[in-house]
């Protein structure tokens, strides 16, 4: 009895010591009060920012808390404290917590929004930013570089934040590794919602990047776990790890046009991640592997259709004795117990092999070193429809040990049984994207026991493998069936990402009120035009998503009479215009469509269907720094214009549009630059833009083009000319295609229009 | 009382569980019995090899022991079991112990002597080789490559072994890192005696090497502690670490002509090592730093006089974005609390900077990236005589933070106080090489508190720094005074390295018995020759160290009459001849000195003083694979010979002699190849050979030399022509020197002998 009492006392004392002492709470209403409160804070202080809009607030939050008594900076009501204008939040010191702030309607003047360092002499450690939002806080110009979140120091955290809408240059989240103060950092990034990051065009648009090649020898020991990534489409790398010994576990990548890339990383743990793609894009990516010692286990891939660098699993070729910033050989990697469902050619071995380019690239750029000492084992490929080439060998697979992998290939058997054994699988569809083996079956029982495989203790959903191990990412159907993709578990509890309104409103507009109707329409609305003549004396401003279409069967006529050098449709950042069944004409000096001349902070989109365009100086002309995510013209005639589509305003690897498509259009008498889509310099890690010309006719075009080329695409990676008719165009070449870079032509009819020429290799200036 | 009894029982039980069960002991007498015993061994088995010589024993010791009950292979009596001939010992399995074996008089036919792997499928883990010797177990030819000790697997140990006398190609001890089975290995190498390894000439003669550049991204976590290295002179790297996260602590490097080098290593711990040099060589080295993250603390250096790559502290310049096998930039290194006593220019920053070679080397070879983010702090430089240049800046030191370093410079003050503060120090000489501050003094009290310096908890001798911290390697004189360099603590307890006999015996020889006297003389003996004529009809065999000198004041005359193509003195592996006050003549077709035509497994030395040599076809001609450690001719005339010294039998970076010196010699009428010392190919990490010509006269030499050059030294790194007289030599050039590579001339008189030409840069084929 006496002992029991003593024990109780001891437990009570223990609890008492562990509990937090009462805090001092300081509520601040303006920046001056905030500064003062920060200066006076001591361990345990809670600084409370009052509700409202804080404009132009460059917050330097320096403090020294303790593990038990941090210094806290929080919103009076989470989500009701808006930080806008030229603002940032930089931390310095120890044991700080920031919570509940909402950054929007602005941008940082300092290179970062959240930064775990005020200066080199004021680094933050053991500090946490939680429950915050940064939404659309992007620079005015796309080429201005920043990173919204910049990690320095050690043991810092970012959790339950929503981060979306960065469209300018620079990774969204950077972890810096320069100096012993910033390595072996054990940072944690968890339970965040990384919302849409639009296609940028060119490199430096990762959602997360760790370090750079110059610090690739430094360890991070950073954990990225349980985050949700949605439409992170900035570039080919969603995550670019350029340091060592980090882990990426239990994240969900939902329809992201990029990959998780071990760019300069070694000894990375990639476990239990889910990659969800779909039929709506060929660019959803998986995992790309470079370097040494990674363990890639328990990952699940659904409808990942990316190719080459964006393959579901891309094991790269390296450069022999690679320089620090290029491609080291893959060695000592393990890829085990993953599942690919309805992916396109999921195993891609030797990606990046470019021996054929030896004549145009220096030796130090030739990726001729295939992966070695690598094990790919106990994986499932499951296809509901047969895949002709589940494995693509780009060079030499002898350095890879394939063991215990199975394929159920939509009923067809696969020949290379040493790589993948053909089996029948009994799979249950648990939800839209999750297919799981009905428990324990013979076809999955031959588990290969590779070196150190004991460490793969659990499956994708945390089920113990010990007594029920089998091939693939999931061993326990019952447990898998309890899994739910609940977006509300990611990011701040108080925040729900913008959802499009249900049904768009349809507005009718007359010639007199068109501009006003557009200005008043809501994002996503439709403006119906009657079959009248709409004479416009100034540009229509498109700063949201709008559809302009004929109200009835006959085409409305838009006649643009504005000043020379101005466009009928002026596209603003984020503007989307869909033009349907409209006839539009202009005069000398005018443009049909154009982005703003500057401050095009984010991309625009342009869709034109069943329309007629004539009489303009330019149909579309890009400005420097502008970027079109998509330009699609369908079943439209383009006639009697001086220039067609000029997307050639940028240099050095940047380019002005990602997806450019013309289908069933009729080009007639466009004097020059029918299409001029340009990208300067060579950076093989970027894989755009895309130009598709299908079923179009080109007649009497290009007469005044000095280049004597009709379709000009220098430096563009993907150009497809399919089933077009080129007739009586006074040029020497229809196009000069770059064979090695997915430029191709098929089924075209060329009459009195020169020829289509393919140059297999092309010599360009390297960008790095 | 009851409680006390219970406690006693518990302790007794604990001990009982920890003690080893009785072992099965199997004594074996021949190789067949040994094989059989190995096959039948089980946990706890002790296989005992009977005393005697085991010839041609390729031992594959496979077994599976446990931590408590290893499988043991041991000598019946330690040191009385000799393994000879074509033999090796390879281990495979778990928990093996080998003890007491003595490998001598032979070589391995397999690439290694001790190997912790039998095959790729039979790797050893948790296995130990202890208390063994490998002495002179070197290949017959110098160019045949092996490594005596080859580590594979994990958690293996080598301790209390004596390893010496390797003269062939290949690191003495290698740790292999190819594959996850062999990385993160936690091997331990401790309490060993690494005895003399002679100068090899060229690379691949390290005493210890970890991995290679191709596995430089892999961690080792290997400990090299408390070993003794003596005269490990194989090449410029005593230890070449090419992997990550290893530690070198408390080792003693005694008169080793090389350095501890972080060649491709990152995050190395170098703590508490002692480097003892002396006045007798300019090649004793210290620590050379490449790459990232090393902590170099508590080390002590005495009379380390090496330069450039062998500097006491060499912080290298890197190559920007270096390829994997070249030189990465130094970053994030800490050099703190070390002491340099009477060293020459101890701080060398930017070693290897070679911007001036940009015209002859590819860009990818130019070391133009200076060290960055590096701290050099709290170090002592103590000189009893002033050093003009304690710090040598080869490029740019801005990336280095110098803090708290002091210098006591033999009474002179040093100007650059930001790098080194001039102080007076009160130092006590504890022994021949150890100088320690008499305790706590003002000049050492300003300790800089760098980032994470708390981890430097102790000093060189294990004294706690907490309450008595000060600048330098030693904080506690009393504790330092208890330190004793006791060689018997290293290597096997039963073994003492060969000691030279005290006084050499002097033998008298007549013309009739000279060969026989030489054969019977002991290593180190002296043979006195009377002033007679010694006519020799066959070569004198030199396979040990012998001095031949005049017995009195008059020179004995050696007349060689042996067959054409044979030498008067035939140098065997390890042979050393000292010739003093002798006249020697030969005839056409004969050589004065030559090594064996093949199987020159180790180096020879040749010293000639006050002698006369005439009438030979060659004075000295090297054979392929032969190597002279030293060739020194002093005050000797060389006359009427067809060829002089031809050291030009090897290719690809190997060369035939290290130190070649002529002082006060008279060369007259030597028709060609007066000196031809050659090294082909360029490998900048090797820094030999050395040719010194001082105060000699050359008259009427080189008449028949097709090259029209008198002194030919292509590819030789160090050539010094000082105060010689060249007169009436019918050549175009006295010498063509390589300015950038320590080739220089001064004070020479050149009359009718062409000129001395210096070419600053030279273009050579790279060897890597």
TrEMBL record, chains A, B:
<dbReference type="InterPro" id="IPR039513">
    <property type="entry name" value="PL-6"/>
</dbReference>
<keyword id="KW-0456">Lyase</keyword>
<dbReference type="InterPro" id="IPR012334">
    <property type="entry name" value="Pectin_lyas_fold"/>
</dbReference>
<dbReference type="InterPro" id="IPR006626">
    <property type="entry name" value="PbH1"/>
</dbReference>
<feature type="signal peptide">
    <location>
        <begin position="1"/>
        <end position="22"/>
    </location>
</feature>
<keyword id="KW-0732">Signal</keyword>
<dbReference type="InterPro" id="IPR011050">
    <property type="entry name" value="Pectin_lyase_fold/virulence"/>
</dbReference>
<dbReference type="GO" id="GO:0016829">
    <property type="term" value="F:lyase activity"/>
</dbReference>
<protein>
    <submittedName>
        <fullName>Poly(Beta-D-mannuronate) lyase</fullName>
    </submittedName>
</protein>
<dbReference type="Pfam" id="PF14592">
    <property type="entry name" value="Chondroitinas_B"/>
</dbReference>
